[in-house]
């Protein structure tokens, strides 16, 4: 296709002088990647400024003289309820407290000079709440600030912020440096310049694509977009087939969600499929792994079940059950996470009414072979 295009257009002399089609195509790709990154950063800047401004307003509203104690105990709860009803996800009490903390820690962004902070212009911007103007003073993504807020030591936090700006660190790189105590190691080092230069070099896993920047859970949440995508076409196809297969088993399974997100601490997870089993009166969480089954997979599913039990389970419903499906090329595993159920009778009932693990394995292998042959 490309060779034909090149041959045809060389005859017509329509390609730019001195450029091959390969160079022309690569230029377009670079342009699109730059545009996507710019779009992600622009949204993140507005998001961060908006959350800073929300935090500022919460703090100032809470500090109204004698009413401070009263507002402090109920304001966030009431605001969370109102904003969630109007805008949906992203405004839990935890998130609002994070915005309040963000303003508290960054009342005067470090990118501003002391002269500007004391100037009339800054006071005017703060008073008018001009988000687009405030945004330029928060060059990092909201995900980066969320990670920085976990650093208790003020000097360490400022160090990581400065190094992220200086080195253009991704959130992954920032997280790795904080987790490995880069600040403390730098203080102890005799050759601080060398360790700073070494620390600024990203590892392979630190690099994020433009798509990942746009699909940042915080960005999707802020824009009110659904997060129903998969990083792997085969995995997505298997998940969709499993959804249909379970619904066709009978009327017991009711579909709830695909790629349902949950947040534990400052980390995001996704459960591939969530069903409700009508006879068992419980949620069924399904996680699909393309690779080999590991104990870490079991631990993660128990984490999901514990979270679902606390946050997704309604009164009078039974505890959720997890199903781990590992679809290796020549081998498959299906395992239910039944530990933690209140009694053996309930566990036996679960095993009786849920699909047989062997049947699930056979269906998984058959489906994978069909998909790979297409």
Q: How does this structure look, described?
A:
With 374 residues, the chain is α+β, with helices and mostly antiparallel strands. It folds into two domains: 211 residues, no CATH class; 141 residues, Trna Endonuclease, Chain: A, domain 1. A five-stranded mixed beta sheet has the order 1-2-3-4-5, sandwiched between helices. α11 runs antiparallel to α12. The relative contact order is 0.07. InterPro entries: PD-DEXK-like_domain (IPR053148), tRNA_endonuc-like_dom_sf (IPR011856), YhcG_C (IPR009362), YhcG_N (IPR041527). This is DUF1016. Pfam families: DUF1016_N, YhcG_C. GO terms for molecular function: nucleic acid binding.
Radius of gyration: 26 Å
Helical proportion, percent range: 55-70%
* pLDDT < 50 stretches: 5-11
SSE string: HHHHHHHHHHHHHHHEEEHEEHH
DSSP summary: helix tally = 18
Structural class: alpha+beta
Largest β-sheet summary: 5 strands, mixed
> Can you count the beta strands?
5
Proportion of beta-strand residues = 5-15%
Look at the structure and give the mean pLDDT.
75
Whole-number total of structural domains: 2
Shape: globular
């Amino acid at each position: 296709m490309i060779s034909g295009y090149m041959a045809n257009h060389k005859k017509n002399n329509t390609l730019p002088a001195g450029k091959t089609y390969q160079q022309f195509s690569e230029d377009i790709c670079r342009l699109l990647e730059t545009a996507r990154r710019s779009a992600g950063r622009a949204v993140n800047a507005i998001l961060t400024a908006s959350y800073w401004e929300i935090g500022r307003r919460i703090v100032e509203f809470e500090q109204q003289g004698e009413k401070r104690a009263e507002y402090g105990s109920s304001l966030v709860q009431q605001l969370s309820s109102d904003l969630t009803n109007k805008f949906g996800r992203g405004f839990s009490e935890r998130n609002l407290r994070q915005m309040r903390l963000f303003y508290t820690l960054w009342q005067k962004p470090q990118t501003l000079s002391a002269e500007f902070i004391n100037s009339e212009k800054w006071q005017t911007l703060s008073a008018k709440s001009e988000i687009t103007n405030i945004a330029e003073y928060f060059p990092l993504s909201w995900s980066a600030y969320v990670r920085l807020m976990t650093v208790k030591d003020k000097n360490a936090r400022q160090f990581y912020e400065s190094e992220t700006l200086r080195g253009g660190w991704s959130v992954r790189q920032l997280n790795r440096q904080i987790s490995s105590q880069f600040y403390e190691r730098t203080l102890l080092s005799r050759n601080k310049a060398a360790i700073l230069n070494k620390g600024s070099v990203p590892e392979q896993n630190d690099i994020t694509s433009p798509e990942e920047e746009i699909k940042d859970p915080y960005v999707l949440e802020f824009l009110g977009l659904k997060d129903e995508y998969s990083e792997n076409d085969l995995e997505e196809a298997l998940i969709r087939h499993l959804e249909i297969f379970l619904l066709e088993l009978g009327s017991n399974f009711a579909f709830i969600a695909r790629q349902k997100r949950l947040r534990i601490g400052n980390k995001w997870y996704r459960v591939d499929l969530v069903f409700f089993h009508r006879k068992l009166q419980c949620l069924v969480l399904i996680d699909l792994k393309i690779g080999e089954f590991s104990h870490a997979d079991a631990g993660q599913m128990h984490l999901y079940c514990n979270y679902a039990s606390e946050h997704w389970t309604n009164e009078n419903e039974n505890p959720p059950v997890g199903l781990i499906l590992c679809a290796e090329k020549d081998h498959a595993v299906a395992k239910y996470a039944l530990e933690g159920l209140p009694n053996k009778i309930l566990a036996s009932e679960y095993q009786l009414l849920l699909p047989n693990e062997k049947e699930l394995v056979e269906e998984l292998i058959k489906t994978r072979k069909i998909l790979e042959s297409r």
